[in-house]
Structure formats: structure tokens, C-alpha cells
């Protein structure tokens, strides 16, 4: 039943993000907030044959290959007329501190694409207040080797011939939205499995738990991204019972922890916030219409 409901919503669709506007010097206006609006306007002429050919190929691949599962899915919206302007929604994978949260990204393919990678900005940042991961900055920057925004071996960097947008999306889903994001920080991996490392990881996750509920769930329930409104409402309706159980499990996990005074103080503050968000989440989920 859940899988059938998910497949009723296309992963890759179009949405009118730009509309004609005679009053604008560029001849168009954005119908939705878009991080790279300035870059789009500055670019002017958009007819770049190499870019458009590659984007057509990428779009065809996305239409049939985007990850779609009950645990975590990726949805893409392109502008109705421009393939270089896109938005992405990734639902957080199960068994991670991002579970069932909705994470929105703005994507722009510059004129030089595919010689250079696409530009990606995370929009789900709690209005620039939350760093959801060592690879996800609170200003929206997404750090990945394949985007040339993170350290890595030469073969991990963007390659115009072998790299793809789908590869980038899967990397964000599987390499960033992980169970213990604390260890994504360079050098921290060596402490994995130690008492100090485990304590630091839980402290890190405690903040992600409450931020995920507040900004990746509640905020989208109250103010769904127009491009993904149907997807968001369907997602939360299908998984409403699982979501409440998951958050309850997070609360239980944090209540049963002990550690040094500083760590405990941080965890307790995040726990109190999580409990407040839990009550509000229950109220918002109860308001959802049946898809």
C-alpha cells in the first residue's frame, strides 16, 4: 500500500518556476523562491548547445532512475521551459537522524555545464540556523567531492564524461544522510566505537533529531514547498504513524543516556525541544487530508 501510493506521485515532473513578465528587464519572474535567481538573471542567454544536450540526457535518466523506496526517495522538479532550473526533495532515510524529514535543494546548471558541476544549495536550514551535517552548512552549501566542494581523490571529483546529476543525488542521500553524521567530519572517524566518539556522536544526533522534526517536518507541514506540496502531504500521511513512533524512539534514546556534564546538558536541552516539537507534530499530522 505505501509503495503504491508513492508511485502515484511522479518522481520527476515539471513545475512553472519562471513565468513571463513584461515588467522585468529579463522578461521573466520567479514564481517560487530560488537560491540561484541572481545567477539565472546574470547568465542571460541560455542557449548553450552542450549544456542543453547533456541536460536532455540527464532528464531522461532521472525520469526512470530516481531512488524511490518506502525508506527514502528522491523527487525532482524542473521548470516547465528550462531544464537548467531545478528543485529536489529528498526524504530522510530510515534509521538515521534524518528519518522521514523532507530536505529541499535548489539546483542550477551553469552555462559551462557539464565541464563544471551543477550548483546545489540546501534550502532546509532552519532559516540558516541549522548545520544538519558536516557536509551541509547552515548557509546551504553542500560539500561533496563530486561537486568539487569537498576534499577527495582525483577520481572522486567531477568528471564531465562520467559524472552525472543522478550520481550527485544518490551521493547526498547515501553518503551525507547517514546514521552517524558526526563521523563525516574529517579526522573524527578514528574515534568511532570509542566511548568518547559514541558520546560525541549521540550529542550531535540529539541536535539533528530536534532540528529534523522542527524544520524538515513541522515547517514543511505548515508551509509546504509549492513544487512538492502533493509529495510532501502524501509522504507525511502515508508515514504518519511511523514518524510518531520514530520520534518517540528518539526521545526514549535520549532519556536513557548518561555522560559528562557538558554533554548531558546539551542532550537535555535538545531533548526538551524534541518533546515540544513532538506534541506539535502530532497536531499537524492529524490535520492532514487523505491523499
Descriptive account of the structure:
The protein has about 290 residues and is an alpha+beta fold. The protein has a single domain (about 1-285), classed as Roll (Ubiquitin Conjugating Enzyme), CATH 3.10.110. Helix content is about 40%, strand content about 10%. The protein is built from eight helices and seven strands, in the order H-E-E-E-H-H-E-E-E-E-H-H-H-H-H. The strands form two sheets. Strands 1-4-5-6-7 form a five-stranded mixed beta sheet. A two-stranded antiparallel ribbon has the order 2-3. Strand 2 (about 20) and strand 3 form a beta hairpin. Helix 7 packs antiparallel against helix 8 (about 260-285). The longest helix has 28 residues, at about 195-220. The relative contact order is 0.12. Mean pLDDT is about 95; it is low at about 1-10.
Amino acid at each position: 500500500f505505501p509503495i503504491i501510493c508513492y508511485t502515484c506521485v511522479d518522481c520527476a515532473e515539471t513545475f512553472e518556476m519562471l513565468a513571463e513578465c513584461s515588467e522585468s528587464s529579463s522578461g521573466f519572474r520567479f514564481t517560487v523562491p530560488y537560491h540561484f535567481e541572481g545567477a539565472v538573471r546574470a547568465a542571460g542567454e541560455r542557449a548553450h548547445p552542450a549544456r542543453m544536450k547533456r541536460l536532455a540526457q540527464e532528464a531522461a535518466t532521472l525520469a526512470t532512475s530516481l531512488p524511490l523506496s518506502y525508506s527514502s526517495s528522491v523527487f525532482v522538479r524542473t521548470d516547465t521551459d528550462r531544464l537548467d532550473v531545478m528543485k529536489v526533495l529528498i526524504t530522510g532515510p530510515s534509521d538515521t537522524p534524518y528519518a522521514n524529514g523532507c530536505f529541499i535543494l535548489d539546483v542550477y546548471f551553469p552555462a559551462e555545464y557539464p565541464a563544471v558541476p551543477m550548483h546545489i544549495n540546501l534550502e532546509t536550514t532552519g532559516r540558516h540556523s541549522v548545520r544538519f551535517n558536516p557536509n551541509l552548512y547552515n548557509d546551504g552549501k553542500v560539500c561533496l567531492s563530486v561537486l568539487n566542494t569537498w576534499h577527495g581523490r582525483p577520481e572522486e571529483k567531477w568528471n564531465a564524461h562520467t559524472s552525472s546529476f543522478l550520481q550527485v543525488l544518490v551521493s547526498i542521500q547515501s553518503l551525507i544522510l547517514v546514521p552517524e553524521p558526526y563521523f563525516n567530519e574529517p579526522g573524527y572517524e578514528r574515534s568511532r566505537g570509542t566511548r568518547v566518539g559514541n558520546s560525541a556522536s549521540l550529542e550531535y544526533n540529539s541536535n539533528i533529531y530536534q532540528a529534523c522534526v522542527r524544520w524538515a517536518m513541522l515547517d514543511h507541514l505548515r508551509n509546504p514547498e509549492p513544487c512538492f506540496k502533493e509529495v510532501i502531504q502524501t509522504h507525511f500521511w502515508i508515514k504518519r504513524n511511523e514518524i510518531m513512533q520514530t520520534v518517540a524512539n528518539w526521545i526514549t534514546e535520549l532519556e536513557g543516556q548518561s555522560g559528562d556534564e557538558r554533554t548531558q546538558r546539551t542532550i537535555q536541552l535538545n531533548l526538551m525541544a524534541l518533546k515540544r516539537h513532538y506534541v506539535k507534530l502530532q497536531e499537524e499530522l492529524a490535520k492532514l487530508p487523505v491523499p
